[in-house]
Write a structure and sequence with these properties.
Butyryl-Coa Dehydrogenase, subunit A, domain 1; 7-stranded mixed sheet; oxidoreductase; flavoprotein
């Protein structure tokens, strides 16, 4: 593939890096994540004003910039480099594509301009596993990720033209701060139950949002409880929600891959800086074994970046790119702790934040082996291997 960046992509990367260098960093990101909102609202507003970040991939008719994943990926990479907590992934990566795919013209006209100008943040809430709902780790057509059956998950009841939701979503990205929730719920009764998506306002009656103590505090999460909460159907009653979630999952995996590649690059940069300045029988970076380790990590990071940007051009490869980038981040973060020696194990040093990001993202969107297994199954590789083994 041609990995060269356009002038515009370079401009997005440069502007974002300058803003984040000035206002953010791993330690600053962790501090921002501890605020009630879970992110720096002033910085988010500035990024929206300077770069139009929330609406970068939105059509111009909704106030967006009419760009694609290839422009969003550099933004996610730079955000990942400093472990920036922001509504970018939940709003732009998860909720916006679903509104575009399923929303009625009136709903798109109402919601998307507010997303583009950063006055509205959104997220996706599913009662089951998010990676399964997005078809990253398996087929999502069965709907087990949304509960279903006679009980469990989130159930939707219709009375006339009004809908109410009852149930729980235990792990929702940015669920405590998003102003609009896209909630997956089952309706239709057993055995014709089917998943639909509903809009639920943050201040809806019967809705309780409890912020969780997450492993990675820069990925804030919350538990949602809905007790006959009023909701509005997103799109039409016969919408193919699993299909829309699959398409959204491919794009979200690409953005997550770029984020993980950026985080790996940030961890490696800090490791290189440390070994260059530390002295132990001479500069630590001059030791050949350390140089070899750093060189190996650099190759891992560059390969991960290549995978992420390939997926930006071909989102069907998003899950595989995410697997490679998450594995790279796990490897680089672990080596960064080792290369920092004793201080890398301390709570006060920022090295542990990269380890937490690697572990938390894999728990939320992986694990890596399931991402690869699902991709191989979709490509028919596992069936081919099984048939070949049978013939032997």
């Amino acid at each position: 593939m041609d990995a060269a960046f356009t002038t515009e992509q370079h401009g997005i990367r440069r502007t974002l890096r300058e803003a984040l260098t000035e206002h953010a960093g791993p330690a600053g990101s962790a501090a921002a994540a501890r605020t009630p909102e879970g992110y720096d609202t002033e910085l988010w507003a500035r990024l929206a004003g300077q770069l139009g970040l929330p609406g970068l991939a939105l059509p111009a008719r909704y106030g967006g910039a009419d760009r694609t994943l290839t422009e969003l990926a550099p933004a996610c990479e730079e955000s990942g480099r400093v472990l920036l907590p922001s509504p970018l992934l939940a709003t732009t990566g998860l909720a916006t594509p679903l509104i575009l795919a399923l929303g009625t013209p009136a709903q798109r006209d109402e919601l998307l301009p507010r997303i583009a100008d950063a006055s509205l943040t959104c997220t996706l809430a599913v009662p089951g596993n998010l990676a399964e709902a997005l078809a990253l780790t398996g087929d999502n057509t069965a709907g087990a990720w949304a509960g279903g059956g006679r009980a469990g998950g989130i159930q939707a009841r219709r009375t006339g033209d009004a809908w109410t939701l009852y149930g729980e979503a235990p792990q929702v990205l940015d669920g405590h701060s998003a102003r609009l929730l896209l909630v997956a719920a089952h309706t239709g009764g057993f055995p014709r139950s089917r998943p639909l998506l509903f809009q639920v306002d943050a201040d809806a009656p019967g809705l309780t949002r409890t912020r969780l103590r997450a492993l990675d505090e820069t990925r804030p999460q919350a538990r949602l409880e809905l007790r006959d909460s009023p909701a509005r159907l997103l799109g039409e009653d016969g919408a193919d929600v699993p299909r829309a979630l699959r398409a959204t999952g491919s794009g979200a995996a690409t953005l997550l891959a770029a984020d993980a590649a950026g985080a790996a690059a940030g961890a490696l940069s800090r490791a290189v800086q440390h070994v260059r300045t530390r002295e132990r029988s001479g500069p630590n970076g001059s030791l050949q074994a350390v140089e070899h380790r750093l060189a190996d990590l650099y190759v891992h990071v560059q390969a991960a970046r290549s995978a992420a940007y390939y997926a930006a051009g071909d989102p069907a490869a998003g899950a595989l790119a995410l697997a490679q980038c998450l594995e790279t981040l796990r490897t680089v973060a672990g080596e960064t702790v080792q290369l920092h020696g004793g201080i890398g194990l301390t709570w006060e040093h920022e090295a542990h934040l990269y380890v937490k990001r690697a572990a938390a993202d894999e728990l939320l969107f992986g694990p890596v082996h399931r991402l690869r297994d699902a991709a191989a199954e979709r490509a028919g590789l596992l069936a081919s291997s099984t048939e070949a083994a049978g013939r032997r």
